[in-house]
Design brief:
The protein is α/β, with parallel strands linked by helices. Strands 5-4-3-11-13-15-14 form a 7-stranded mixed β-sheet, with helices on both faces. A 4-stranded mixed β-sheet has the order 6-9-7-8. A hairpin with a 3-residue loop joins strand 14 and strand 15. Helix 3 crosses helix 10. It starts with a strand and ends in a 13-residue tail after the last helix. The N terminus is likely disordered.
Length: 365
């Protein structure tokens, strides 16, 4: 069919249709090409980020994935002169910085744990909700702090610091010597430095042998690994009970004074210190020069004298007295082994710990 365009020459409608169709096809093809280029560019960016992150995770897992007992030559040399090294010795700091401290990753979290009846029960039986209560009471609304959690496990199960990080934007240091737990900690991608080492009970670097309870194919895996401890430390009653239903896996790890980590990271103020090293907490605290580093609050598990009546433990007055002499106020004790302290000369925390403002944990239960 022919048509005339306003007095112009006759134009074939089929020719116009063909031209329009060709133009549409070209536009569609161009759009597809642009979309393809965008997708490829995005894929390249993701791959680059993943490669960087995988290298970081590989470094994170490096020490934990070594065969049990494997110590590199540099570490061996450090251990030979360990007793003669101060916590702030440049050689100690260089070793930590180059080998045993890994910065936060760039990729999103890999958090997978969900609250359920079992987690709720364990939080109450192991004292996590006690610590969580006071962490939130003292630090609600305080953004940008720094924490240290020794005995970080896999970074999520009953973590004492995860809320500070995800809700208040804190950064910090997570220390976990157990190889299995550390590999999972690296995979969680916490926004904190991580280290596959342990806190030294001495004022110098040392090596320690750890025993981890393990029970394959159990939904309570992290309950068992939470009781990883140095083999020369005194086991808790729960550890003794769990050991009847599990096997022991042994590993070795390098331990550094807490002061060494803080000096390496150039940290002078720790807002919250969580210590759960299964037996050497008091020794770790004794080794920290509190005149150099300011630790505003401390959550610590400490085993006092055994109670012959009910088979548990008594609150340790000697430990409390020591903490008072170095400037701390005892806020509360839970089940005679879980202590929460705040620095007495910290005006903000001292004011919040006064009875009119302080909401005791037991009053809510």
């Amino acid at each position: 069919m022919m048509k005339r365009d306003r007095g112009g020459p006759l134009i074939s409608s089929s020719s116009a249709s063909s031209s329009s169709s060709s133009s549409s096809s070209s536009s569609l093809l161009l759009l597809c090409l642009l979309l393809l280029v965008t997708v490829v560019a995005a894929a390249v960016v993701v791959v680059v980020i993943m490669v960087v992150d995988v290298r970081g995770v590989a470094r994170r897992e490096d020490w934990g994935s070594r065969p049990h007992g494997a110590v590199d030559e540099a570490s061996e040399n450090l251990l030979r002169i360990g007793e003669h090294l101060e916590a702030s010795d440049p050689r100690v700091l260089a070793m930590l910085r180059s080998t045993f401290l890994v910065p936060p990753p760039a990729l999103p979290y890999n958090l997978t744990m969900h609250k359920n009846a079992k987690t709720y029960f364990l939080s109450r039986s192991l004292g996590w909700d006690f610590y969580d209560h006071y962490v939130k009471q003292f630090f609600q609304g305080q953004r940008g702090g720094f924490f240290v959690e020794a005995g970080a496990l896999e970074g999520e199960f009953l973590s004492n610091t995860l809320w500070l990080e995800t809700e208040l934007g804190w950064s910090g240091l997570l220390i976990e010597p157990d190889p299995v737990s550390y590999r999972h900690l690296a995979w969680k991608r916490r926004r904190a430095w991580i280290s596959s080492t342990c806190l030294s009970k001495e004022k110098y670097p040392r090596e320690a042998v750890f025993g981890a309870l393990t029970k394959p194919y159990t939904s309570s895996l992290w309950l068992y690994h939470a009781h990883t401890r140095e083999i020369d430390s005194h086991p808790t009653l729960l550890h003794e009970s769990l050991s009847n239903y599990s096997t022991m896996a042994y590993s070795r790890a390098l331990c550094f004074p807490l002061a060494s980590y803080l000096a390496t990271l150039n940290v002078t103020v720790v807002d919250f210190l969580s210590l759960d090293t299964q037996g050497h907490e008091w020794a770790v605290l004794r080794g920290l020069p509190l005149t150099t580093w300011r630790v505003r609050s401390i959550a610590v598990e400490h085993l006092g004298p055994k109670n012959p009546t009910h088979g548990g433990y008594n609150t340790d007055p000697a430990f409390v007295k020591y903490m008072e002499t170095v400037g701390y106020r005892l806020v509360d004790v839970y089940k005679e082994v879980n202590y929460f302290f705040v620095l007495w000369n910290d005006e903000t925390l001292r004011r919040l710990s006064d009875p009119p403002r302080l909401v005791k944990f037991f009053s809510l239960n």
